[in-house]
């Protein structure tokens, strides 16, 4: 087969387009609050990771505009050379303080952050152990490392211990887990993982992209939620969720962060986070710390929607977060439901293999602290009507 032959033979997306059920790369024309305009029609967004509703906060937009006026629209260089601004340094200092770790380092995207951490720290002869449902960025980062990679069954502590026991204490090992799993919305069993990490002398890294800002009394994430912050060696987070910006961070021991800073290729050879994005993070961080009522409202909404879906007869799986999946477990029916929801004014995300295992297709919904009860009731009503229309609900 020639290099381009596989491109010509890929027809699955063409078939979905022809059927009118292709759901991806939908251009959003305008954003206002929890509503977006698609194809000229205003619809309610329940497919975003804008958990705290800060995407269009006046303070955040003002900070971004002022940063552009002061620094321009880009850095035109990497952090290693000409791309470090004073606000990059300020951001890292404040993030470290917020997360109660010695130091922080920021990357241009969350994907690059995981690549930089794992490919830098895991060397030949080392081992990295991950949950089989870990984010794709961690999977790719493991491939870039020279270490041996082991996967354990999702949230199965017996299988994790089996893998750690097989590796043994003579190999440098790091366990890497999602704090909040991005499709199913369930949490890693951090207390038990911490116990196993200690037992087998392994380091522990938590990808808390969907946890920081949401989980824990102060919004420091899943480790705070479980009371094991001091037991987690490295925490990774992104700015494209609760921080409503773009970029990623890693926090931990200052010598570890300093080492990553000087050897992570995804940091050294990438342009740094733009001034507007940095300013947005600084503004949202202040709001996260000073307005805990946003998290309180988000959890009220989460309970309302989860209970509402379950009362209709939908299966929401093991979720423990504002990510509420609606399991359909049939790819074609999932796309049909997505299309019907869109036609009735609801923006959701259909998720099929490989983002979830075969036979576990779902509609992923996620919520913002700014969603009104009226919007939420509309969403529930549309889901019920569409589910009945397709025979998913009785």
Walkthrough of the structure:
- The chain has about 400 residues and is of the alpha/beta class.
- The chain folds into two domains: about 10-45 and about 290-390, Aspartate Aminotransferase, domain 1 (Alpha-Beta Complex); about 60-290, Aspartate Aminotransferase, domain 2 (3-Layer(aba) Sandwich).
- It contains 15 helices and 14 strands.
- It has helices at about 5-10, 10-20, 60-70, 85-100, 110-120, 135-145, 155-165, 190-200, 220-225, 255-265, 265-270, 275-290, 295-310, 330-345, 375-390; strands at about 30, 35-40, 40-45, 105, 125-130, 150, 175-180, 205, 235-240, 250, 325, 345, 350, 360-365.
- It has a seven-stranded mixed β-sheet, sandwiched between helices. Strands 1-2-3-12 form a four-stranded mixed β-sheet.
- The mean pLDDT is about 95.
Question: Which terms would index this structure?
Answer:
394 residues, alpha/beta, Aspartate Aminotransferase, domain 1, Aspartate Aminotransferase, domain 2, 2 domains, seven-stranded mixed sheet, four-stranded mixed sheet, 15 helices, 14 strands, 43% helix, 16% strand, globular
CATH class of the largest domain: Alpha Beta
| Structural shape | globular
Uncertain ranges: none
Oligomer: single chain
What can be said about the biggest beta sheet? 7 strands, mixed
The number of distinct β-strands equals: 14
Looking at the overall shape, the CATH architecture of the largest domain is 3-Layer(aba) Sandwich
Q: What would CATH call the homologous superfamily of the largest domain? A: Type I PLP-dependent aspartate aminotransferase-like (Major domain)
> In which order are the strands of the major sheet placed?
4-10-9-8-7-5-6
Q: What fold name goes in the CATH topology slot of the largest domain? A: Aspartate Aminotransferase, domain 2
Number of structurally distinct domains: 2
What's the total helix number?
Answer: 15
What radius of gyration results from the CA coordinates? Answer: 21 Å
Order of helices and strands: HHEEEHHEHEHEHEHEHEEHHHHEHEEEH
Instruction: Kindly state the percentage of residues in helix.
Output: 40-55%
- Mean of residue pLDDT? 96
Terminal CA distance reads 48 Å
Strand content: 15-25%
